[in-house]
Amino acid sequence: MKKFVLFIMLAFVGFYANAATVIATVDGKPVTDTDITARTKLMARQGNTSTDNRRQALQNIIDDSVKLNYAAKFNAVPSDKDVDSELKRMDLGDLSASEREMARSAVRANIAWQVIVARTIMPTVDVTDEDIKNEKTTLEREHGLPIEMTMVRLLSVPDDVVKKLSTPKSCDDAINIATRLGGAPQKFTVAQYELASDIRERIAGLKKLTWSKPTADGSVFLICDTKKTKEYGKLDNIIKQNAIYKQSMFIADQQLKQLRRRAVVIINDDRYKI
């Protein structure tokens, strides 16, 4: 009899110990401390080592559940084959059983949400010419365009010499002006996207045959000529798609916030409450 009572007591202790690990529920589905630990490890593998990563991990798990519940209404939940294929592509290394299950859940939710965005949001988004122009300007500054540029560069130019750089009539004239002032101009041709970011920033919007302001190291640039490459013909369409995608993701983020508010989320541990 004593053994039976002891067994019952141990069973209840085990039950309550397991129950205590339930940090939250999302529409009745439990999220345990083990789930959160697995998600934080997954986040670390992806380079996210925030000091608040356990709370962020819970929010990610909640979002995954909300996304998958919504995607199920549109029959947009990806197959195991698609999920495993994406996991293989991500190459996260050796994962424990709990980490792999969490990774599969995260990937499944991400794919499903991308499908939802593509089906229900992107077709409704239209961008203006101004949106495309702004997107092109951002691309030009941050990454560069597929434009071949012939340029003249002067290195370590003193301030008094910069003031004497007159407007040239041609690239050869620019070289002559720089040479007369004691400089050693360099002429080269390069694709804009191959330039360093600080140089792109300096020459963005710079008119032809106009000297740029000096960079941090005192370099001055002048654009002699530009020529669009073969890739440039596809650029406007790519930029338009990027603009549509950005707006779609902004709308999707607002929609996710609404879905999150509608979900029945109960957080049992005050440490995880926002």
Strand order of the largest sheet: 2-1-6
How far is the first residue's CA from the last residue's CA?
Answer: 48 Å
Count every beta strand, where a strand is a DSSP E run of 2 or more residues.
6
Encode the helix/strand succession as letters: HEEHHHHHEHHEHEHE
Q: Mean pLDDT, rounded to whole units?
A: 87
Total number of helices = 10
Q: Tell me about the biggest sheet? A: 3 strands, antiparallel
Measured by DSSP, the beta-strand proportion falls in: 5-15%
**Morphology call:** elongated
Specify the structural class.
alpha+beta
Query: Spans with pLDDT under 50 lasting ≥5 residues?
Result: 4-20
Radius of gyration: 29 Å
Q: Portion of residues in helices?
A: 55-70%
